[in-house]
């Protein structure tokens, strides 16, 4: 905690008692950051920015939302029609959710490409996965609140996942519902939790940043910072770069808000929830689609394990497997820049996820079912077979001596 | 980098195609007449909205509700305050109980939501052979293709079902309706309404006008949204350019 | 830049001031943008369009007999509409010359002497005074009596006794016909 100096007596008085200025100085201004971060490193701060937008818009939406089944749909429409700028706030929130996931997915794939999950950043990566899980829960809960057809049937389908567990399954589902079907008690608790979880995410983000500042940022070369020449202070270099990124991102984000606000949405959710009529084709929000495809890939009972349970277990496993990634990847080299074969498999994995997402959004028909099953098999093979083997078999390219050495070489 | 861009484009492509495929409409590809509010600078054509309202008020509203639109909102389609009062007063709604607890009917007021033709959904379904005429407030957002779907549906009736298709009693055949057997009989024929602005009321004209009106009913904020968006984008373009220039200056000595 | 060596000093201050100018103008533009972005949020807390649409209330006076009063809801607040008797009016005009805390002549508080229309919210701390119904206490001056802290209002709705500082306010209203008024 060095370096914080001020002539302002009030600030130094406060800082001696609660060192917030020292902390800011330490972690947002002086924080030594690799000098060679590329624009893929902007996505963490962008995600944090969207989190703030989501909190802000959410808090203002709640001022006009009613969480009762007979009022919810109309209260959302009142926000859209009568509340001053209500349409803007709601569309920001709606599209903000999709943006949040786009940014976090890019953030995660950047992490996979540059091996940022490897020692000593395993805990940083874990916290990130927990944030991702909390986001998925929050997104699902939030999608239920407008109480349209997709809200209702999405809630029904997803809560029914838990019925796959033997013995206790049905009791868990009843507990989630607070009744014998998705109904008013369900909506009320979902609303309560949807308001709570974002603040949990904020707490997790603080932990995430704490872990980051302990182990320092990875960089495109994947070699640690070794000396003064490798790093630059966070401010002003990365503050301005992040702000520029926010400017670009806002143009992308707001283009949807102002010109295609329902691009990510489902038309069926503009039909009020009707427990008697299921829409012909139920899909979750796009950000769950790859996992939805994995869920649906299991169609045959195996020994005593029903297909339904297999699917649910596989879907959860698909996320939980990420926790083991630091050990499944046996290579000591972080960046795919120096791993020519891994790089190919990285792109294959990305394509696999996109294919799974595509399949998840389509009706369960051939040949898509088979494609989904192959995609699911490849998804797990990537983590369980390819990554452990590749680390042993692949011969990485020579690593640069240091970041500054590589930068200087590139310049010349 | 090139690969990254390529993959982003692929992702967007997959994404868009998966969205389109989730159709809740009939088999036939929709007709696309090209509406005035489409595109970056597109806005509603108020004269068209007013014609569409005339069709809705004289024809559609005999079976369909518009429960999310208030009479006062109709000033946006070009009705005067007096006309709005008149339209509102055409139907009655249950008043609050009086001091004796008796509920009587009163005429609609501008602040009321558009009063539907039936007291409730059951009555509406019963009066229409069991098929509930859906509320139209959000129809333009609640169907894939939105206004194009409405435009197509209104003109998609066949006089007779194609050979081999058996229609249930009381249903009509529509090319664009999911399952093709629709409870609503064909509606539009020449001069069904007389437009106040003298436009010739052909089925095609009326289909376009009603689609426009219903799109307005679903997205009344569209004009405001797009104008605000334009201002915001101009601001962001300037601001982001300034941030970029500043970033260049600050980073000048690093690389 | 070729002659930067000879003009090293001035060119570096030039660069410095150019950089400062860019920095400060970016900060200024960003501050304006942030403020503008916050406005929709603030404005969303103002009354919504449906609330504003109910900002006027029409009242039919025909059924109210002299001596009777009705309470109507206007913008979420009770409004007292009282058909005053000759005695009420006489009492009110006589007291124009009495010692009043919030001095107002009765004539300035009514459009037609027999119709007194006031917002029925005590100017002390916002309770609704009694005196509308036949059996209600009407206070020492024949108008209204606030049960919360004992304010007495007269037949013109003026504060006469008790802690309230001001008369019951007269809302903006107009006669749309001989027997109907529009408040607001």
TrEMBL record, chain A:
Coiled coil: none annotated. Residues 10-221 form the Cytochrome b/b6 N-terminal region profile domain. Binds 2 heme groups non-covalently. InterPro entries: Cyt_b/b6_C, Cyt_b/b6_C_sf, Cyt_b/b6_N, Cytb/b6-like_sf, Cytochrome_b, Cytochrome_b_C_euk/bac, Cytochrome_b_N_euk/bac, Di-haem_cyt_TM. Component of the ubiquinol-cytochrome c reductase complex (complex III or cytochrome b-c1 complex), which is a respiratory chain that generates an electrochemical potential coupled to ATP synthesis. The main subunits of complex b-c1 are: cytochrome b, cytochrome c1 and the Rieske protein. Belongs to the cytochrome b family. This is Cytochrome b. It comes from Magnetospirillum sulfuroxidans.
Automatic annotation (TrEMBL), chain B:
Residues 47-200 form the Cytochrome c domain. It is found in: Membrane. Keywords: Electron transport, Heme, Iron, Membrane, Metal-binding, Respiratory chain, Signal, Transmembrane, Transmembrane helix, Transport. It holds the Pfam family Cytochrom_C1. The chain crosses the membrane at residues 228-246. This is Cytochrome c1. Belongs to the cytochrome c family. Residues 1-23 form the signal peptide. The lineage of its organism: Bacteria, Pseudomonadati, Pseudomonadota, Alphaproteobacteria, Rhodospirillales.
UniProtKB/TrEMBL annotation, chain C:
The chain crosses the membrane at residues 21-42. It is a single-pass membrane protein. Binds 1 [2Fe-2S] cluster per subunit. It is found in: Cell membrane. The keyword Transmembrane applies. It is an enzyme of class 7 (translocase). It comes from the Bacteria. Its cofactor is [2Fe-2S] cluster. It catalyses: a quinol + 2 Fe(III)-[cytochrome c](out) = a quinone + 2 Fe(II)-[cytochrome c](out) + 2 H(+)(out). Keywords: 2Fe-2S, Cell membrane, Disulfide bond, Electron transport, Iron, Iron-sulfur, Membrane, Metal-binding, Translocase, Transmembrane, Transmembrane helix, Transport. Its EC number is 7.1.1.8. The Rieske protein is a high potential 2Fe-2S protein. The main subunits of complex b-c1 are: cytochrome b, cytochrome c1 and the Rieske protein. This is Ubiquinol-cytochrome c reductase iron-sulfur subunit. The gene is petA.
């Amino acid at each position: 905690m060095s370096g914080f100096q001020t002539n302002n007596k009030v600030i130094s008085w406060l800082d001696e008692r609660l060192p917030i200025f020292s902390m800011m100085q330490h972690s947002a201004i002086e924080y030594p950051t690799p000098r060679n971060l590329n624009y893929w490193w902007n996505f963490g701060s962008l995600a944090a920015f969207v989190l703030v937008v989501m909190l802000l818009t959410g808090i203002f939406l709640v001022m006009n939302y009613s969480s009762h089944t007979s009022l919810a749909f109309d209260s959302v429409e009142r926000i859209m029609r009568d509340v001053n700028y209500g349409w803007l706030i709601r569309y920001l929130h709606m599209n903000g959710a999709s943006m949040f996931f786009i940014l976090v997915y890019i953030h995660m794939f950047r992490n996979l490409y540059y091996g940022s999950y490897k020692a000593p950043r395993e805990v940083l990566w874990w916290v990130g996965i927990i944030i991702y899980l909390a986001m998925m829960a929050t997104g699902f809960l939030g999608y239920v609140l407008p109480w349209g057809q997709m809200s209702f049937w999405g809630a029904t389908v997803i809560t029914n996942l838990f019925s796959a567990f033997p013995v206790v399954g049905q009791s868990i589902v009843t507990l989630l519902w607070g009744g014998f079907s998705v109904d008013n008690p369900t909506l009320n608790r979902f609303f309560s939790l949807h308001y709570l979880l974002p603040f949990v995410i904020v707490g997790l983000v603080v932990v995430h940043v704490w872990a980051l500042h302990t182990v320092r940022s990875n960089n495109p070369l994947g070699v640690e910072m070794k000396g003064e020449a490798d790093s630059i202070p966070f401010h002003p270099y990365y503050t301005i770069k992040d702000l520029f990124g926010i400017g670009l991102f806002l143009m992308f984000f707001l283009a949807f808000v102002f010109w295609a606000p329902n691009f990510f949405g489902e038309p069926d959710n503009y039909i009020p929830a009707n427990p008697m009529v299921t829409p012909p084709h139920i899909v979750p929000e796009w950000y769950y689609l790859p996992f939805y495809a994995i869920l649906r890939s299991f169609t045959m009972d195996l020994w005593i394990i029903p297909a339904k349970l297999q699917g649910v277990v596989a879907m959860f496993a698909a996320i939980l497997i990420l926790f083991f990634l630091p050990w499944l990847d046996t290579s000591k080299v972080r960046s795919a820049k120096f791993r020519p074969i891994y790089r190919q498999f990285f792109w294959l994995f990305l394509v696999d996820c996109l294919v799974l997402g595509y399949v998840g959004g389509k009706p369960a028909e051939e040949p898509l079912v088979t494609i989904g099953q192959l995609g699911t098999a490849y998804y797990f093979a990537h983590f369980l077979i390819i990554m452990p083997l590749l680390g042993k078999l692949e011969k990485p390219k020579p690593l640069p001596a240091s970041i500054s050495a590589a930068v200087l070489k590139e310049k010349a | 980098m090139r690969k990254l861009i390529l993959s982003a484009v692929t992702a967007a492509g997959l994404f868009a195609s998966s969205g389109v495929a989730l159709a809740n409409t009939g088999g036939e590809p929709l007709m696309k007449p090209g509406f005035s509010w489409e595109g970056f600078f597109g806005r509603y054509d108020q004269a068209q909205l007013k014609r569409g309202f005339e069709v809705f008020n004289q024809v559609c509203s005999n079976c369909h509700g518009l429960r999310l639109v208030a009479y006062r909102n109709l000033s946006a389609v070009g009705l005067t305050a007096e006309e709005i009062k008149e339209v509102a007063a055409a139907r009655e709604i249950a008043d609050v109980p009086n001091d004796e607890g008796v509920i009587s009917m009163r005429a609609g007021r501008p602040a009321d939501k558009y009063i539907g033709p039936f007291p409730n959904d059951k009555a509406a379904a019963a009066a229409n052979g069991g098929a509930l005429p859906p509320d139209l407030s959000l129809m333009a957002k609640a169907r894939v293709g939105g206004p194009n779907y409405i435009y197509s549906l209104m003109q998609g009736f066949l006089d007779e079902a194609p050979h081999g298709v058996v229609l249930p009693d009381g249903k009509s055949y529509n090319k664009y309706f999911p399952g093709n057997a629709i409870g609503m009989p064909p509606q539009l024929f020449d001069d069904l309404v007389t437009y106040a602005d003298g436009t010739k009321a052909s089925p095609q004209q009326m289909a376009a006008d009603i689609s426009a009106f219903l799109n307005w009913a679903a997205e009344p904020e569209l004009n405001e949204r797009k104008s605000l968006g334009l201002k915001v984008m101009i601001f962001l373009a300037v601001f982001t350019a300034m941030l970029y220039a500043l970033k260049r200056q600050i980073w000048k000595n690093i690389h | 830049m070729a002659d930067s060596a000879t003009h090293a000093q001035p060119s570096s201050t030039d660069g410095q001031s150019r950089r400062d100018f860019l920095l400060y103008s970016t900060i200024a533009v960003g501050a304006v943008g942030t403020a503008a972005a916050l406005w929709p949020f603030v404005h969303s807390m103002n009354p919504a369009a449906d609330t504003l649409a109910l900002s006027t209330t029409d009242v039919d006076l025909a059924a109210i007999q002299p001596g009777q009063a009705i309470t109507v809801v206007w913008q979420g607040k009770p409004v007292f509409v009282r058909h005053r008797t000759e005695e009420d009016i006489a009492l009110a005009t006589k007291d124009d010359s009495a010692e009043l805390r919030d001095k107002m002549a009765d004539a300035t508080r009514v459009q037609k002497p027999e119709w007194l229309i006031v917002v029925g919210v005590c100017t002390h701390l916002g309770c609704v005074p009694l005196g509308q119904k036949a059996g209600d206490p009407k206070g020492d001056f024949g108008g209204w009596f606030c049960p919360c802290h004992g304010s007495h209002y007269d037949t013109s709705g003026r504060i006469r006794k008790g802690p309230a500082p001001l008369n019951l306010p007269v809302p903006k209203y107009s006669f749309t016909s001989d027997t109907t008024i529009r408040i607001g």
